[in-house]
Write a structure and sequence with these properties.
CATH class of chain A: Alpha Beta
Number of domains of chain B: 2
Largest interface: A-B, 26 and 32 residues
Radius of gyration of chain B: 19 Å
Largest sheet of chain B: 7 strands, mixed
Strand content of chain A: 15-25%
Largest sheet of chain A: 7 strands, parallel
Distance between the termini of chain A: 4 Å
Order of helices and strands of chain B: HHHHHEHEHHEEEEHEEE
Number of helices of chain A: 6
CATH superfamily of chain A: Methylesterase CheB, C-terminal domain
Helix content of chain A: 25-40%
Shape of chain A: globular
CATH topology of chain A: Rossmann fold
CATH superfamily of the largest domain in chain B: Vaccinia Virus protein VP39
Order of helices and strands of chain A: EHEHEEEEHEHEHEH
Structural class of chain A: alpha/beta
Structural class of chain B: alpha/beta
CATH topology of the largest domain in chain B: Rossmann fold
Number of domains of chain A: 1
Oligomer: heterodimer
Helix content of chain B: 40-55%
Number of helices of chain B: 9
Strand order of the largest sheet of chain B: 5-2-1-6-7-9-8
């Protein structure tokens, strides 16, 4: 039923994403795309930090890398990360969107255009509005939209902006997000 | 700018066809997602309503073509992007280029740079007192880009980022000595680039300066599909001198391409390749 999961987060999302990745089994049936706001000029360290507890391998993809199930793809520093037809990663150095590069909106929009109703989009804690429009696009194209419960978020701006823009399918605590992802239908 | 207008794949193909049939500019093997986004950006920028509006404007106005070619090229957006790359260039690559040989080595910025790579390189060379010891070549797609670069008005969006990048490149240097401020805009010192040779290209990079020793082609092939990437990489490999260097973006790779056997990886983190002698 689903072909990919995409997760966006910013300030306050690191611990949440760490818990989610920790809970995924090594043979997870879907690719997990991660677009997390990060320091532009720090190229290394992030993927290593996320990998320590992750159940699945995390890759900071090169341009044109094939997207495969059972792996997480982290948007590299200072690039936008798109999903390209043919199930490939495409990177871009176009100008920042919502002051962000990578921009969650752009990753979500391009993933929605490729996977359409077979995509799950999740917005986590964050301090700006990036991702709200992207989540709307996922919903508009038939995908499933999930937002972390703002009450649980360290910073609620991003989740509240998303909820304002889109009638989402679920508002979940971290535990519920994990349970959903573990039992996802493919 | 925020883009809310979206065009479909059929519309995108129609624009590509107009550019090829009417003007001979071949975008057929550009990466679809980013090309589509650039077209949406241009449609929004000129309030053209939709893809048909863009096609009509391209057909009716030859002057618009140059502006289109300027706008379709994503801005490089940062001076000294990846400061560690520029440090390797300064500390290892450039000294080797100028060490040997009797003629001035040629350095070719083969990406469609909007000036940031060229000014960064020129500042680097100036600080090494080597600006007159190399020949610089720079690819451009539009006259508008040449005007932008030669006027020194790169209109850097984020001065803090550029300044911070420069300080990471040269903590003892003074970035502000390379530009002046005029009515809130930044104008770079154009004497830095006065001897640069611009090469007006088509989209397939059919011209080359002949025997460059260093080609800078960072974050350009990300806008191509696999087929076009390999075609262009082959052209670059063919003109690059044996032992010369090719720099691509830090998240690009020559692995699994048709030219991988022609290069050794010189610096993995900065994706600098060295041309083999065969």
């Amino acid at each position: 039923m689903y072909k990919a999961v995409i997760i966006g987060g910013s300030a306050g999302s690191f611990q949440v994403i760490t818990r989610i990745l920790h809970a995924l089994p090594p043979n997870y049936p879907l690719p997990v795309l991660l677009c997390l706001h990060r320091l532009k000029h720090v190229r290394s360290g992030f993927v290593e930090a996320l990998s320590i507890k992750s159940g699945i391998p995390i890759i900071e993809p090169n341009d044109k890398e094939q997207i495969k199930p059972g792996k997480a793809y982290l948007a590299p520093a200072n690039y936008h990360m798109y999903v390209e037809l043919g199930n490939k990663i495409a990177l871009s150095t176009e100008e920042p969107v919502n002051h962000s590069r990578p921009s969650i909106d752009l990753s979500f929009i391009t993933a929605a255009q490729v996977y359409r109703e077979k995509l799950v989009g999740i917005i986590l804690s964050g301090a700006n509005r990036d991702g709200a429009y992207g989540l709307k696009k996922i919903k508009d194209l038939g995908g499933l939209a999930i937002v972390q419960n703002p009450d649980e978020c360290q910073v609620r701006t991003m989740t509240e902006a998303s909820l304002k823009m889109t009638p989402v399918d679920f508002v979940f605590n971290t535990n519920e997000i994990i349970k959903f992802l573990q039992n996802i239908k493919v | 700018m925020t883009i809310r207008y979206e065009i479909g794949i059929v519309d995108t193909r129609n624009v590509i066809k107009t550019l090829l049939d009417d003007y001979g500019f071949d975008f057929r093997d550009y990466a679809l997602t980013s090309l589509k986004r650039r077209l949406e950006y241009i449609i929004s920028l000129y309030a053209l309503r939709d893809a048909d509006g863009l096609i009509a404007k391209l057909k009716n106005s030859k002057d618009f073509l140059d502006q289109f070619l300027y706008d379709i090229t994503p801005e490089t957006t940062e001076m000294f992007r990846d400061p560690s790359f520029w440090r390797i260039l300064r500390d290892e690559i450039v000294p080797e280029l100028v060490k040997s040989g009797s003629s001035k080595p040629r350095i070719w910025i083969a990406s469609f740079d909007t000036g940031e790579e060229l000014y960064s390189l020129s500042i680097l060379l100036k600080e090494m007192n080597l600006l007159n010891e190399v020949n610089l070549y720079c690819n451009v797609l539009s006259d508008h880009t040449i005007q932008r670069i030669t006027s020194g008005r790169l209109d850097p969006k984020d001065m803090e980022v550029n300044e911070a990048n420069y300080q990471r490149f040269n903590e003892k240097g003074k970035y502000s000595s390379y530009y002046r401020t005029e009515a809130n805009s930044i104008i770079f010192d154009v004497s830095l680039i006065k001897d640069v040779n611009f090469i007006k290209q088509n989209t397939l990079i059919d011209e080359d300066p002949g025997a460059p020793k260093l080609i800078i082609f960072r974050n350009q092939a990300i806008y191509y599909n696999q087929l076009l990437s390999e075609k262009i990489f082959a052209k670059l490999a063919n003109c690059l001198v044996a032992g010369g260097y090719l720099a691509i973006g830090v998240k690009e790779t020559l692995e699994n391409t048709n030219v991988s056997n022609k290069f050794t990886l010189y610096n993995e983190a900065e994706r600098i390749y060295k041309r083999k002698t065969n």
